Amino acid sequence: xxxxxxxxxxxxxxxxxxxxxxxxxxxxxxxxxxxxxxxxxxxxxxxxxxxxxxxxxxxxxxxxxxxxxxxxxxxxxxxxxxxxxxxxxxxxxxxxxxxxxxxxxxxxxxxxxxxxxxxxxxxxxxxxxxxxxxxxxxxxxxxxxxxxxxxxxxxxxxxxxxxxxxxxxxxxxxxxxxxxxxxxxxxxxxxxxxxxxxxxxxxxxxxxxxxxxxxxxxxxxxxxxxxxxxxxxxxxxxxxxxxxxxxxx
Length: 249
Hints:
By secondary structure, the protein is an alpha/beta fold. Helix content is about 35%, strand content about 15%.
C-alpha cells in the first residue's frame, strides 16, 4: 500500500495547499493522512463562535468535512495553540510527529516550505520545521527510542516535499520560495479543492480571495523535493511517488 502524509498548521490548509494532490492520489489508491497541528481557534474570522473553544470545535468539524470531500483516509487535528507554534518546545512536537510517522509509515511526506507558503504565516513555517525534523528522525533508532516497542519501529520516509508556487501575495511580508521540482496536474479536482475549502464555513470571508488565487495557480500544485532516500540529480517530476521503493523502511 502506498501511503502519503501531509502535515499542516490549520484547518483549511489541507484544502488550500494540498487539496488537489490529496484527491488525485486518493483516486490512485494511495492511503492518505493529514495531521493538522492546531484547531485554528485563533482565526480572525470567527464564524459566530463566542470563544476560542467554540471556534476550535467548529473548525474541527469543518476540517473533517473537507477531508471527506478530499477522500482523505485518516485525519487528525491536534491541540497545539494556534498562532503560537513558534513558542512550543521543539522536541515535544517533533516527538509527537515522529511517533505518528512511525505508526502510519508513509513513503511520501508533504508539508509547507520554511518560508511559510505564499502567506508567509509563522505557523506554516513551524509546521515545516517540525515535519522536516520528524521526517529525518523517524528513521533513526537513537531518536525517541522510548517509542520503539511492540509494533512501533523506526521508519524512513522516502521523499519529503515542501509546497512552493510561482507567485506571491501582495501586501505580505517578503518570502523566498524554492523552485518547483514536481508539478502535480490536478485537472478537474481544482473544483473539488474549492469545494473542500468552502467546507470551512467559518472562514467564508476568505472564500473569494482563495478562489481567485486558486484559479490563478490553475489545475496544478507545485512542490519542491527537499530530501529523498535516493539522492540523485533533480529532474522534473509529475508523480510524487516516482522512484519510491517498497523495500525501504
